[in-house]
Specification:
The complex is a heterodimer of chains A (about 120) and B (about 180). Chain A has about 120 residues and is an alpha+beta fold. Chain A has four helices and six strands; from the N terminus they run αββββααββα. In chain A, α2 packs across α4. Chain B has about 180 residues and is mostly helical. Chain B has a single domain, classed as Ferritin (Up-down Bundle), CATH 1.20.1260.10. The chains are: A alpha+beta (about 120), B mainly alpha (about 180).
């Protein structure tokens, strides 16, 4: 079986792309020249981390430490150093990915096709 | 394409978040009861203090019940941050009034959770929550009964002393 068969594109923006790997049950995120792979639970944690960052603070606080945000990916020892624009773009990508995952889950539910 | 969400859990994310919020509410209720117990103890109402210590433990048990349910469902339960709770009460009676209001708030929150479960067709969680629905009826009865003691005994003379001695009978607690 070719590896490509198990990779499904979930969402794509001009700044990044996410895939689902059915062999490893991982979500692969390619963003800012970094590739990260998450288990579903870790993907949810990472998305929530990105959503919790206070954008208003980044915009209005002139202190240097608010110029960027470091987001650590769970269990992968990888970090993303993000500016305000990066963060907005990452959120967009993660939200789009979550939407596709939800949609796929709904389709499985209505079609009764839970697969492993 | 596999359904990765289903591999993780059948719990919907909004239910997961709402249950985590309920964990926080139960932890806050536990903390409030502890403060009430402290107030009663330093003001000489030892039976009432015992009653509130017991209530505090119960609220923590409720919190853990939800905690374990979330873990059983394969999702993370978050240990909640509990902020400062009031430690000052103007009167002995106001402590019990606050307790009843707190129980009513928890009941409303549980009801909203049940409504959410019905909306997203999560019948397993709704079934789990039925224990809390029943428990809240009992909690409210106890809190209301405590306030009734103020009405039937009265606070004049040795009234407050008598009320305190009778509070423990609500849940048949013993004081050493």
């Amino acid at each position: 079986m070719s590896l490509n068969v198990s990779l499904h594109e979930l969402y794509r923006t001009s700044k990044g792309v996410t895939y689902q790997c059915d062999l490893t049950n991982r979500i692969v995120l390619n963003f800012a020249d970094q590739v990260m792979a998450f288990r579903m639970a870790d993907f949810v944690l990472f998305r929530r981390k990105a959503e919790r960052v206070n954008l208003h603070e980044m915009i209005f606080n002139l202190d240097d430490e608010y110029d960027f945000e470091v987001l650590e990916a769970p269990k992968s020892n990888q970090k993303l150093v993000l500016t305000l624009c990066d963060l907005v773009q990452l959120r967009d990508l993660l939200a789009g990915t979550q939407f596709t995952l939800n949609l796929n889950s709904m389709l499985h539910e209505v079609l009764y096709t839970y697969s492993y | 394409m596999k359904d990765l969400q289903r591999l993780r859990t059948s719990l919907k994310e909004e239910v997961e978040l709402a249950l985590n919020a309920q964990i926080k509410m139960e932890a806050e209720a536990s903390s409030k009861y502890l403060a009430m117990a402290s107030w009663c103890e330093v003001n000489g109402f030892l039976y009432s203090a015992k009653y509130f210590y017991k209530q505090s433990e119960e609220e923590r048990e409720h919190m853990l019940k939800i905690f374990h349910y979330l873990a059983d469902q394969g999702v993370m339960a978050y240990s909640p941050e509990v902020g400062a709770v009031p430690h000052e009460y103007p009167t002995f009676r106001s402590v019990f009034e606050t307790a009843l209001q707190s129980e009513i708030n928890v009941t409303h929150s549980i009801n909203r959770l049940v409504s959410l479960c019905r909306r997203v067709e999560d019948y397993a969680t709704e079934n789990f929550l039925q224990w809390f629905v029943k428990e809240q009826v009992e909690e409210e009865i106890n809190a209301r009964r405590a306030l009734e003691l103020f009405d039937v005994i009265g606070e004049e003379g040795i009234g407050r002393f008598t009320i305190d001695r009778n509070v423990y009978k609500i849940t048949k607690l013993e004081v050493e």
